[in-house]
Write a structure and sequence with these properties.
The structure is a homodimer.
Chain A (H helix, E strand, L loop, with lengths): L5 H5 L5 H15 L6 E2 L11 H13 L16 H12 L8 E4 L2 H8 L8 E6 L3 H9 L14 E5 L17 E6 L11 H14 L2 E5 L25 E6 L1 H4 L7 E4 L12 H12 L5 H10 L2 H25 L2 H5 L3 E3 L6 E5 L5 H12 L1 E2 L1 E2 L10 E5 L4 H11 L5
Chain lengths: 407, 407
Amino acid sequence: MIKRNTGFANLTAGYLFPEVARRRREYAASHPEAKIISLGIGNTTEPVSKHIASAMSDYALGLATPEGYSGYGDEQGNSALRQKIAEVFYSGKVDASEVFISDGAKCDIARIQTLFGNDVKVAVQDPAYPVYVDGSVVVGAAGENIGSGYKGITYLPCTEENSFFPDLSKIEPDTLIYFCSPNNPTGVTATKEQLKKLVDYANAKGCIIIYDSAYSEFIRDSNLPKSIFEIEGAKTCAIEINSFSKPAGFTGVRLGWSVVPNELKFADGSSVNKDWNRVMTTLFNGASNIAQAGGLAALDEQGLKDMKAQVDYYLANGKKIKETLDGANFKAMGVEAYFTGNGPYVWAKFPGKKSWDVFDAILDKCHIVTTPGSGFGPAGESFIRFSSFGHQADVEEACGRLSSFSM
Amino acid sequence: MIKRNTGFANLTAGYLFPEVARRRREYAASHPEAKIISLGIGNTTEPVSKHIASAMSDYALGLATPEGYSGYGDEQGNSALRQKIAEVFYSGKVDASEVFISDGAKCDIARIQTLFGNDVKVAVQDPAYPVYVDGSVVVGAAGENIGSGYKGITYLPCTEENSFFPDLSKIEPDTLIYFCSPNNPTGVTATKEQLKKLVDYANAKGCIIIYDSAYSEFIRDSNLPKSIFEIEGAKTCAIEINSFSKPAGFTGVRLGWSVVPNELKFADGSSVNKDWNRVMTTLFNGASNIAQAGGLAALDEQGLKDMKAQVDYYLANGKKIKETLDGANFKAMGVEAYFTGNGPYVWAKFPGKKSWDVFDAILDKCHIVTTPGSGFGPAGESFIRFSSFGHQADVEEACGRLSSFSM
């Protein structure tokens, strides 16, 4: 019989969010009266703008006409959309040939490991979005789980002590570095100076950075970099992954992109962009053409205005949650809440407590689903991530309940 | 610096279809007067039915309303769609929990290799759809290219001599067998008796079959099996991959599904379905919800009628091409054309000629793009694949030109 991929045997427990969903389901089943509100998974709740939805609707209807029909598109994406992304998000610093359209950031993060195979060294921020680690485990690059994490992965603690920016000197040469900014889960956005340090380190040590900027549209401080390609030297050491999911409400529509610079090389001097092109043409078949029509609409004047309004809405929720967590009842528990106003998450430390215990207590006493920080890595223990994705009325109701929480 | 995945270094030349596209582009550039018709890539050309397109259009428009909006869906797919596929295509032989919705068959074929890692033995029909081999090469399961093919892959010749059904005894125990029916490129559909042999062999030898039935809706002979799960014993040895691309015209919309039976096990007794669930939830994030709305419409009474009409249209094209290739000019060259009426491809042998030479001659003399059989594997040499996907008028014009072809 055929053997199981040892990567799966090495994967620990459930993927974080299904486990959160499971506990929610169980709680709901035994407490049918509870009106549960989710500040857990980063799932958008507000309708897509009329302008963007109409573009997709019109495109779909057009598929029923000879003029509007299209079959397979370029696997790398609609060239007008690649061009528009290069212009709007990278002001010409990136060429359209370096932009590849995907069905979302998570899928590209999974595919990207294909480029490097199963014997690459991996470093992740700790805490981090679980897919970086799980994707590495599945391809066999992470090795065994040794309790505190995987043997083959370097965890870079991002804590209050280092203002959530890791000690780079722990990263070995020739390492694939996953770096997320604005960060999920801490919400912290790296400064230009910090990213310059990271880029210089990667170039000096032969590392490649997978820069996840899926939350870049939440950045409101104009001094903060929205792309790693604002940093000199990034094109020889970084791949950027981004998505329409959060700013356009496309979590279910599925559309993202990655930028793989022409200057980026493997050790043998061959082009990473060329291999990525091969991944996308051989192992992928393009994002839905309807979603791509939506992406184009999202990048015109009206679409950009709509995306900004949608992000503003969620940022206001985040501010409200942060104010609640600064309340006297939380102060009494020693809770410290971090919210930058440049990302969608509020990251709160409950000193001396286990994340899952706090998760369960908040679910039980407030009927609110959160995300336990320990699910994002060892350094996330004692933290809870509060997501600002939710209807304003629900967030206000949740904040009302939280204002009398204690454990 | 980081090393290149050796799988990419092992990949030969370009992926078949980009190479075909390149030759077409070059020819068009040097012959701007040529009105080129494509009977090459299997790309749908006919509009999506109004019924199905309207369902997607309505869904997209609904995303702009609070009632119609949805964010992340289940990564495994909309449960109503999973249920409907189980009923419509498998008449209850398959449970909804065994059906996983994807963004298309090609993407699932690529992802499926993740289940088995890089040391699994692989067997493919020869000729075969190139992604089975290329996907295996990229994960490192295929080994080096030794000229006639990859060292780690068992090629199973499917030729006139064996009526295009392979000699199974060449397959070693514990092998992953890619099997496509109706076949791309030969067009041949396996009978129930043949599939029973395949299933029995796989069960006896501990093999797993990846059954690609993306063209099953082309089957018009009611004695032929549309699914491997019509065969007793298949649930302990097979995974089926299918797609809405061809019957619904969804090549650009992106929607497919895979069936991974609960009974299917790895050598250690663990469940393949469970690991696949993990692949889909961790490395994928669901097909576009708009496409899934289209899939649901395609499976109601009107949608099924529309899909049948669309397939009938292409089958009529295939019949016309087959008649043309039976003409006196082709007979004079010794050409033998195979067309079953149960698949979209006409597979024609040009004895004593190289496939790429025939490809070039047909492009040059008739301004018609075809697909060279050798691109599908060593046993495809001397063959040309003619695709029936095209506007009827174009196919008729192409057949007119072909009727005076010689080389």
